[in-house]
Amino acid sequence: MMKSKSNNWNVFGLALLLGLFSTLGPFTIDMYLPAFPEIAGNFNTSASLVQFSLTACLLGLGMGQLVMGPLSDAHGRRKPLLISMAAYIICSLACAYAPNIGLLILFRFTQGFAASAGIVISRAIARDLYSGHELTKFFSLLLLVGNLGPLAAPIAGSGILSFTSWIGVFISLSFLGVFLLIMTKWSLKESNPPERRMAPDFKQQLGNYKTLLRDRKFVGYMLAQGIMTAGVFAYVAGTPFIYQNIYGVTPTVFAILFASNGISLIIGSQIVGRLAQRIPEQTLLLAGLWLALAASVAALVVTIVHGPLFALVIPLFFFVCSIGITSTAAFPLAMESQAKMAGSAAALLGVVPFLLGALVAPLVGIAGEDTAVPLGLTLLMTSLVAILTYFLLVKNISHQTPQHAQSDPDFN
């Protein structure tokens, strides 16, 4: 009994540590959202350009994963994390003291690039240690911690803005980088020993990506969850102006509303974690896709008739909940047969949402700051395309039930 409790605590401690690295992405994306109107006024620029700083960050987060994933396959997980956390600190300070919107956009790209290591490598470590239903359960536990980022980040940003300017937000992010650098140095064990590493060969790394992209089932899961997550980035880009400019809420109320959807992400991921051994992950994934479609239709109707705030918040809550379901279910399904290329596979699973999000996010502001209809249309579009992708690439392929995997004894 004591051994079982000890193992449980070790698993929870590892999930907590990896979850902290996963929160770096949400904090980098979300923490400055309440400051959008202030940044626009400070640089005397448009809402679209401020939103483009978010797009630049998403591009950095996406492209960085394509680099960090293979690097961690070749050089281990710890070394790339150490270098990236040091770079993140420098880039955050550069954002804080950017003299104009153009340089802020550039520095946001580099900040996102550095932050990408925390996202992709934490997931690669999870695949190093688990597979099958065990990976699903562990990944849901990791997301329980990681999804606190979207919940806490806007509240933290709003709290910082209550006594300082948007500059303080980026200085705070640099302190977060310092903390994660220390955690990497002193608390993270290496899960990819030298004998399991891929050769540090650029051509082979490209070949790994080519192999993964030829796997129809992997691509289907990757696109289904990536397209859905792109819808969330549209929500992230649009709601600061919709809530504050159209509905007139304060930055504090916006932060609370935004954080409520962090709770919905947690609910969605934990539903999958609890039901994984009783209901196939594919069934849970499809349920999440249908929930997203229903919620996006409701959101579009509310935006067209300009319904009250609560009528918009409710379908958005369920839409984000569906992301928790689809992401948690799709990840272990996609990673099941990718043990030797865990970093590269995690990179592709991570990069697609950010690249698609970078393309989709600016669409919500295309009609100006006085209408929410583009957000509703964007959510509906992403939901429909994700469902079509799933049925075209995954549904008709027989799925082999994953085997339970044992955790790495070196980590327990």
Automatic annotation (TrEMBL):
Superkingdom as given in the UniProt entry: Bacteria
Subcellular location as annotated: Cell membrane
Gene Ontology CC annotation, any one: plasma membrane
GO-annotated molecular function: xenobiotic transmembrane transporter activity
Database matches in PROSITE patterns: MFS
Gene3D superfamilies: Multidrug resistance protein D
Principal location listed in the UniProt entry: membrane
Protein name, as recorded: Bcr/CflA family efflux transporter
Natural source organism: Paenibacillus pabuli
